[in-house]
Amino acid sequence: GSWLPSALLGGTQVGWFGVGVAMFAIPVHKATGIDTNTLILVSGLLMTATVYFGISALMVLSAIAVPAIALLGGYSVVEAVNSVGGIRELQQVQPTEPLDFSMALAM
C-alpha cells in the first residue's frame, strides 16, 4: 500500500535535484563559459557530498554560498539598473496599463 506514495516522493525528489543542479549550472555556464555537462556533474557530486557528510558539510557550503549569493545578487541588481540607463531612467519608466489586484497579489 505504501509503494505508490513512496515512488511519487522519490520521483519528485530526484526531479527536484535535477532542477536544482540545472538552476546552478546554466547561469554559471552563461557567466563563465564552462561546459554545462561538467558543471552539472561537479555540482551534483558536491550536492551529494553534502548529504553524505551531513550538517558539517552544509555548514561549510553555507559559509561559501551565502556570501556568494549576496555578492552576486547585488551585482545583478547593479547590472540590471545600469542596463536601463541608471536609477533616474528606471524611475522614469511608466507602465502601459495598470496592475490588477490578482497580479499584484501573485507577485
TrEMBL record:
Subcellular location: Membrane
Family: Belongs to the purine-cytosine permease (2.A.39) family.
GO CC, alphabetical: plasma membrane
Membrane-topology annotation of the record: Multi-pass membrane protein
Species in which this protein is naturally found: Vibrio parahaemolyticus
TM helices/strands, residue ranges: 6-26, 38-55, 61-78
Keyword terms of this UniProt record: Membrane, Transmembrane, Transmembrane helix
GO MF terms held by the record: cytosine transmembrane transporter activity
KW Repressor (keyword) present: no
Principal location listed in the UniProt entry: membrane
Protein name per UniProt: Cytosine permease
Pfam family, one: Transp_cyt_pur
